[in-house]
Amino acid sequence: MAFDIDMIKEVYSQMSERVDKAREAVGKPLTLSEKILYSHLWENKPNQKFTRGKDYVDFAPDRIACQDATAQMALLQFMQAGKENVAVPTTVHCDHLIQAKQGAVKDLKRANETSNEVFDFLESVSSKYGIGFWKPGAGIIHQVVLENYAFPGGMMIGTDSHTVNAGGLGMLAIGVGGADAVDVMAGMPWELKFPKLIGVKLTGAPQGWTAAKDVILKVAEILTVKGGTGCIVEYFGEGAKNLSCTGKGTICNMGAEIGATTSTFGYDDSMERFLRATDRNEIADEANKIREHLTGDQEVYENPEAYFDQVIEIDLSTLRPHLNGPFTPDLATPVGELGEKARKNDWPIKVDWGLIGSCTNSSYEDLTRAASIAQQAVDKKLIPKSDFGINPGSEQIRFTAERDGLLKVFEDLGATIFTNACGPCIGQWDRSDRKGDEKNTIVHSFNRNFSKRADGNPNTHAFVGSPEMVAAIAIAGRLDFDPMNDTLINEDGEEVKLDAPQGIELPELGFDVEDNGYLAPKADGSSINIKVNPDSNRIQLLDPFDPWDGDNLMGAKLLIKAHGKCTTDHISMAGPWLKYRGHLDNISDNCLIGAVNAFNMKTNFVKSQLDGKYDAVPKTQRAYKAEGIPTVVVGDHNYGEGSSREHAAMEPRHLGVRVVLVKSFARIHETNLKKQGMLGITFDKESDYDLIQEDDTFNFVDLKDFAEGKQLTIELVHADGSKDTIKANHTYNATQIGWFREGSALNMIKKQNKA
């Protein structure tokens, strides 16, 4: 079934004219990314050339997707916007609040019991405002979107950083915070700085153990976790055509790990096959009519250096399988070389778990490739040395995989089949085999491997690989195992070797499902009353943030100077805290508890300037708020890397933090801070970070003159009375300064609606 086919037909009917006008405005051939961007301008008139990395541009996305953890805050904000219905097709997917523990049936039952209040809230709000609702167990948001909503040449935004997964079907799909989604739901333009473009030319075809996952693991090594910031990564070349649609999705998915705005591929035969296999023949037929506009112009790909800001070339025929990690997704090591590196760095060689699934690698093809390795283990009488966990991507995939015997292969190997949900990938994992902070190693096919990410243990060394490589290493139970060259001893004492994986791109008997988990909204939701128990500890209606008083900000105290990597996981942890995503005050008790204090190298232990004592960050900040004292958070490079969760911006704002001053921001987090009325600024001189002392007071002496393109001056007053004056930069435009003045972007929306 093709959802929203009339909308898609309208996009396609206008694309030829808009692409032609854009090409004329730009004055040269266009990349695919430019075609989609220019054909989705809010004003519908591609009559000017925008400067990459500089111009802020208003866009009109085609649709929105929200997962349950972020949807709560997004919908709580939308409820204040005064609208009767969402302005563009929108869906909510319940995939984050299901903990992996005993297996799919028991885990889903427990989730429906413990989080029923949240699920009921999301379902009722969705039905009221015309939002499609996918029930718990229906699947992981990004796989469900790929199977049902993604379409070549479209633009979508989603309240999850891995929304970019839909680039595997030729979209520009971009992760945003909930406030951005609210703008579009309310019928307003969505603002984005026009991205720079990175072209990745792929040649050859993957061989043997090399998978699509290895492409992005290699790209992550090349670009690092911040090398894609402010950029769209566009993949092209004959090698791209040798990858499946879901393989392309895997590559785009992990583009979030290099900070990229999004990633995409041009429309090709693999995408057409996937559309038809997922019962969307009508979309494939329409896409074929404008096929030349759903990929970059030929001149671009023949001479990419003239059209992209950076070009990378990867030969898939020679690309080796990789494992990335631990603790960062850009630390890449070719399989076979990891043993030496692990011993040198004292990483545990023994592997305790192999986890297959997540939004990155849970397609039918992924399961077949991993199952081909698992079947060999069964046939060759190998006893796995590690535990196995499997998360299918959707109920459609699970049902089809069960029908085709794939799940039984894993079960014969002793694997636990978890719910069609995120599970361990986002810390929703009740890991019974580990206690405390014991040092250990796991391998998984997920996208992120930050400290504490999967199980809350800072000493879990997590390595990212393809599903088939995860299966092989889990069977061997050793990080230094190289399935391409090494052998294993089976239960008969025989030496056996694993053959290269074999995958099936699409099920030979077609996809099948009895209940995909979708609930359509009511045609008229005006009679639905959304009730929130004022005593609930899960859902809390929002109070607007206070507007800026227009004066300079004086006497602000340092809350924390964060050392090194400070991701959204450090600012607002997931795992057990996910249950409070709809209750701003409760979840604020995790605010910055994972950030490392630069003055004592401890987490959740900062000095209060009220009494000189050290205590937890949230408790210390609540004391400042009670006294009416504004505070400042100082950070390092790429501050806010990782998830799109706007809680990492809303929590400090709620608790009274006024300014975040860092060396550099991750894109989504910087936008989230702006949307919530925070002052997010960067050091003009990065070395000024070193001037910040533990007892500092900050005076923003010219904030009352806050203006686009104008630096801010900060007077640092140290405990001994000495002072330093530093400069800070910002990227606020006139509209964003308006958000700051009004207290938040949502406040501005409400003000405009009343006017």
TrEMBL record:
Which EC numbers does the record give? 4.2.1.3
Which Pfam families does the record associate with it? Aconitase (PF00330), Aconitase_C (PF00694)
**Alphabetically ordered keywords of this record:** Iron, Iron-sulfur, Lyase, Metal-binding, Transit peptide, Tricarboxylic acid cycle
Domain (Aconitase/3-isopropylmalate dehydratase large subunit alpha/beta/alpha) spans 34-477
What does it catalyze? citrate = D-threo-isocitrate
Assigned GO CC terms: cytosol
Example GO biological process term? tricarboxylic acid cycle
What Gene3D superfamilies has UniProt attached to this entry? Aconitase, Domain 2, Aconitase, domain 3, Aconitase, domain 4
* Name by which UniProt lists this protein: Aconitate hydratase A
Task: Look up and give the organism this protein is from.
Answer: Psychroflexus aurantiacus
